[in-house]
Design a protein that fits this description.
about 120 residues, PH-domain like, 8 strands
Length: about 120
């Protein structure tokens, strides 16, 4: 779906993980989330209107610090991972658009072990 973005609220350098890691620019607009590839030959930009984002999974350290990676869960039952040094600012603005209740922590590596000990 092509979005016509006349206004860009926030931009940051980032990466998308789709089999291979591709560099580009993350753009947040009133219409949605957009990833623009640095390499123009790859194809069209990735565009996700706000209403198609079901939730955003973010990596949080044991100390409570937000990591650089986050994943968008879409209403098509797909997940796309992104990474940016400015992930905190990006996630704050995404939360303003879709609601902070849709920002969820990803499970830690120790979570399955802890689940096993609870039995």
């Amino acid at each position: 779906m092509e979005m016509n973005n006349n206004q860009i609220d926030y931009t940051a350098k980032g990466r998308v993980f789709l089999g291979a890691v591709e560099n580009g620019e993350i753009k947040l607009t009133p219409l949605g989330f957009e990833f623009e590839y640095s390499n123009r030959r790859i194809g069209k930009n990735l565009n996700f209107p706000w209403h198609t984002i079901v939730k955003v999974e973010l990596d949080v350290s044991l100390r409570g610090k937000v990591g650089s990676q986050f994943g968008l869960y879409l209403n098509t039952n797909s997940k796309i991972r992104f990474s940016s040094k400015d992930s905190g600012a990006i996630l704050k603005r995404i939360g303003q658009q879709i609601g902070t209740d849709k920002l969820v922590r990803s499970r830690s590596l120790l979570a399955p072990l802890m689940d096993g000990l609870k039995l």
